[in-house]
Amino acid sequence: VVRGLFRGAKRGVLTSKKGHNFYKGNRTGSMGRHTKHGSYVVDLDKVRTFAVPDLADCELKPYVSRRTNKFKVDLPGAELFAARE
Length: 85
Hints:
Number of helices: 2
Structural class: alpha+beta
Order of helices and strands: HEEH
Oligomer: single chain
Distance between the termini: 52 Å
Largest sheet: 2 strands, antiparallel
Organism: Coemansia nantahalensis
Keywords: Ribonucleoprotein, Ribosomal protein
Strand content: 5-15%
Helix content: 10-25%
Radius of gyration: 23 Å
């Protein structure tokens, strides 16, 4: 029984830094493909782009209290995200 507990104690969370000859990855996905000549072609449809609103007149600070009242703001480009729902 003690021998079995010791063996199980070695198993832990498998991260991308642990494991012999095993690449777990970091869930980022690919942004293109490798060619037969050894180069890499970036597919612009796979590149992540972020819609960031203009925060020049924003009254909020970088750290917002959890007790702050919720409110809805109409942002330009919000119709892009409404199509996904």
